Amino acid sequence: MKTTVSIIKADIGSVGGHAVTHQKLKDKCNEYLSNAKEEGLLTDFYITNCGDDIDMIMTHTNGTDNEEVHKLAFDTFMAGAEVAKGLKLYGAGQDLLSDTFSGNIKGMGPGSAEMEFKERGSDPVFAYCCDKTEPGAFNLPLFRMFADPFNTAGLVIDPSLHGGFDFEVYDVIENRKVVMSCPDEMYDLLALIGSTGRYVIKRIFRRSDNEIAAAVSTDKLNLMAGKYIGKDDPVAIVRSQSGFPAGGETSEPFAFPHLVSGWMRGSHNGPLMPVSQADARPVRFDGPPRVIGLGFQVSEAKLIGPVDMFADPAFDDARNTATKVANYMRRHGPFEPHRLPADEMEYTSLPGVLEKLEDRFEDM
Ligand code: F6R
Ligand code: MG
Ligand code: MG
């Protein structure tokens, strides 16, 4: 019997503007997922949030892209959105692009990351969930976990990781994908995934046996809706230990709060701050962007845990650095590279300004 881990997430409304979701929404999700667990569709689940996004971490035995599981997630978010509307929460139902389910949650607004595997004797699985950023935010940390020997000692000194990993990369603009092997094709891989707005790591496999190692939600909300309706705050599932990066090798990349796009109005670069669940409240200039990390054991498809990875005071320095970087970036105000380049901004007044000035522009 194989176990499936599905994280399906959505922003269905929040308090204090786009800051934090409401407990009543999580209660509604809990009600729906509890029923599904009683009926046997789910084996287990854990509900958390990063800022205004609700993350439903679900385990079951139905495989990935299962229609019933996806419908459950969709119905749950629809019901939560009704609660949000009743409370007049901000952005109530904002990520739900359609009110009728059509077989798969992909393309309907919520983000999803899923993987199916045969459980080992003991199977540690990590959930990393972000707010106020985009799927490409995981490119750098995932590269570090699975391809950078200066992060992951096991790549060098553990024979079970030494063969390297395959990276499946999505081109989210042209809607195509490519698989690249590390370490052999490392430089080519980096040439792509350095463009975080376009090339996004979707899945990672261990080369020696093609075993799934990581999966990311890559749904680009803004591209799907054809207009801005919120950043596609991503989640990642990462397997760990005994042939995969150790737990601490999966969290280590986040000790460097790298710059990601998102933050205020989805239009600014800022540091990705690793925080505990309690501190997943991005309020300073609607940010800075956050990531939480939860460490579970998956046991007969049940979720044991979690450990709140970034509650560890050893990440205090990363948070202090992130605050310093936030101060520095903020002083640029509306200038690049704090503000994103024009074609990547989610909000822009530029076409209107150009139109207004059209008659006043002169050839030089
Ligand atoms: C970023 C985000 C917020 C909003 C901002 C303006 O992902 O959600 O920064 O973009 O609060 O929101 P509106 O346009 O709804 O007033
Ligand atoms: Mg929101
Ligand atoms: Mg969000």
UniProtKB/TrEMBL annotation:
Pathway in which the depicted protein is active: Carbohydrate biosynthesis; gluconeogenesis
EC number from the UniProt entry: 3.1.3.11, 4.1.2.13
Residues given in the record as beta-D-fructose 1,6-bisphosphate binding sites: 18, 90, 103-104, 132, 241-242, 265, 286, 347
Binding site for Mg(2+) 4: 232
One Pfam family from the record: FBPase_3
BP term (GO), one: gluconeogenesis
Entry keyword set: Carbohydrate metabolism, Gluconeogenesis, Hydrolase, Lyase, Magnesium, Metal-binding, Schiff base
Entry cofactors: Mg(2+)
Positions contributing to Mg(2+) 2 binding: 52-53, 131, 233
Binding-site positions, Mg(2+) 3: 231-233
Catalytic activity, as annotated: beta-D-fructose 1,6-bisphosphate = D-glyceraldehyde 3-phosphate + dihydroxyacetone phosphate; beta-D-fructose 1,6-bisphosphate + H2O = beta-D-fructose 6-phosphate + phosphate
Binding site for Mg(2+) 1: 11, 18, 52, 94
InterPro entries: FBPase_V (IPR002803), FBPase_V_sf (IPR036076)
Positions with a binding annotation for dihydroxyacetone phosphate: 18, 132, 265, 286
Active site: 11, 228, 231
Cell inner membrane as UniProt keyword: no
Superkingdom per UniProt: Archaea
One example GO MF annotation: magnesium ion binding
Job description of the protein: Catalyzes two subsequent steps in gluconeogenesis: the aldol condensation of dihydroxyacetone phosphate (DHAP) and glyceraldehyde-3-phosphate (GA3P) to fructose-1,6-bisphosphate (FBP), and the dephosphorylation of FBP to fructose-6-phosphate (F6P).
Complex and partners: Homooctamer; dimer of tetramers.
Family to which the UniProt record says this protein belongs: Belongs to the FBP aldolase/phosphatase family.
Domain statement: Consists of a single catalytic domain, but remodels its active-site architecture via a large structural change to exhibit dual activities.
Full protein name: Fructose-1,6-bisphosphate aldolase/phosphatase
